[in-house]
Design goal:
InterPro entries: 6-PGluconate_DH-like_C_sf, ACT-like_dom_sf, ACT_dom, NAD(P)-bd_dom_sf, PDH_C, PDH_N, Preph/Arog_dehydrog, Prephen_DH. The chain has 15 helices and 12 strands. The protein has about 375 residues and is of the alpha/beta class. It is globular. Bound molecules: nicotinamide-adenine-dinucleotide (NAD) and prephenic acid. Prephenic acid binds next to loops.
Length: about 375
């Protein structure tokens, strides 16, 4: 497709969407604006955008698509500003915010002027921020939630999906309220829990300096998302406070239940608690990258000797298989280690399995 796409907020999500659009629609001109001039400059330098707009007024001129990819509170303000500007009457305005109800509510003025707004939320991301973390495969196989209001022309929704085709995401249309309830459960609430575990650990570390050094695989897996942008999460919590307060009440009840099981030393019930959690977690779809991310991880049992990582990455390099991450899961000296290698696609993971079994006798599996 041809046209001008204006991206406001050139961070992880805005940058990644710009890359996806350019990949699919080579003739489109991507214009970008960020309040942080350094991000705009970097976006241009990295080839994420074609042109820098000095401000929003300049960027909207002749835009066919406007994507707002700023924190959700900023998004509300930007929407108010857009309603005062002379937009192309055919433009589609969308956003990427992690909450939807308050954002959609703030589009009344745009609606008044007959401008199409379709709320959007690509359900994939990272704890990293900024345009330097942007990548065009970020949304592959992820759900991309759209929340058009009833009056929106279906053709405009299809047009937006066409613009976003390069994400290779799966579009799903839901209401803003349902969106906030569902993402509250699977995304926003887990971020509160991750941050709370880290904060509790920090407090306890003051009296026991060994704690941070012992915080290994399990702690890291559970708390990765606590490294996300505080600015972004502050806004998300405030936007979705009703849902999150209710979830916190339920969680407190849940924790009181666990405490009672422990006080009563109820072994069968404790087993059952973990077993039910395991059954549900193991049954989650792993090929989809949704709110529950599917990592294309490969687990390799390796002996603990110096050089084993470079040996394995050497095999993969020989077959030109790219990896996105590599880490050791088990570091005890007296037993084998487990190397976890992450790939961008399922196909790369399969190729890697074949490659490692061809060149070595290390056993591999797709779960630890
Ligand atoms: N990070 C994720 O995992 C993720 C996933 C899906 C959706 N989202 C949502 O997408 C949006 C962007 O998140 P991100 O991860 O890209 O954040 P980010 O911090 O990487 O990027 C946000 C960018 O917006 C810019 N910005 C802030 N206020 C602005 C304004 N008024 N005008 C122009 N630019 C402004 C910032 O300078 C920053 O460069 C947020 O609403 C977030 O809730 C995030
Ligand atoms: O993978 C991560 O780091 C994320 O936190 C991504 C995540 C999520 O909770 O799944 C975070 C917020 C977004 O709105 C969507 C995706």
């Amino acid at each position: 497709m041809k046209g001008r796409v204006f991206v406001i907020g050139l961070g992880l999500i805005g940058g990644s969407l710009a890359l996806c659009i350019k990949k699919e629609h080579e003739d489109a001109i991507i214009v970008g604006f960020d309040i942080n001039k350094e991000q705009s400059r970097l976006a241009k330098m990295l080839g994420v955008i074609d042109e820098i707009a000095e401000n929003i007024d300049e960027g909207v001129i002749d835009a066919n698509l406007i994507i707002i990819a700023a924190p959700v509170n900023e998004t509300k303000e930007i929407l108010q500003l857009l309603a005062k500007l002379p937009l192309n009457p055919e433009v589609i305005v969308t956003d990427t915010g992690s909450t939807k109800s308050r954002i959609v509510e703030s589009t009344a003025s745009l609606k008044h002027w007959g401008i199409t707004f379709i709320g959007g939320h690509p359900m994939a991301g990272s704890h990293k921020s900024g345009v330097s973390a942007a990548k065009e495969i970020l949304f592959e196989n992820a759900f991309y939630l759209l929340t058009p209001e009833d009056h929106i022309d279906k053709k405009k929704v299809e047009l937006l999906k066409d613009w976003l085709r390069g994400t290779n995401a799966k579009f799903l249309t839901i209401t803003p309220g349902n969106h906030d309830y569902l993402t509250g459960i699977v995304s926003h609430f887990p971020h509160i829990i991750a941050a709370s575990i880290v904060r509790q650990t920090e407090k306890l570390s003051e009296a026991e300096s060994l704690i941070p050094r012992l915080a290994a695989g399990g702690f890291r897996d559970l708390t990765r998302i606590a490294s996300s942008s505080p600015e972004m999460w502050k806004d998300i919590l405030l936007h979705n406070r009703e849902v999150l307060i209710e979830l916190l009440n339920q969680w407190q009840e849940e924790m009181n239940g666990v405490k009672t099981l422990l006080e009563k030393e109820n072994s069968a019930a404790i087993f059952n608690y973990f077993n039910q959690a395991k059954q549900f977690r193991d049954g989650l779809p792993m090929k989809e990258k949704g709110a529950i991310p599917a990592f294309y991880d490969l687990y390799v049992d390796v002996p603990d000797y110096p050089g084993v990582i470079s040996e394995i990455t050497g095999y993969l390099a020989k077959e030109k298989i790219s990896i996105t991450n590599i880490r050791i899961l088990e570091t005890r000296e007296d037993i084998n280690g487990v190397l976890v290698i992450s790939f961008q696609t399922e196909e790369d993971r399969h190729k890697a399995e074949r490659c490692i079994s061809t060149y070595s006798s290390y056993s591999t599996s797709i779960s630890s």
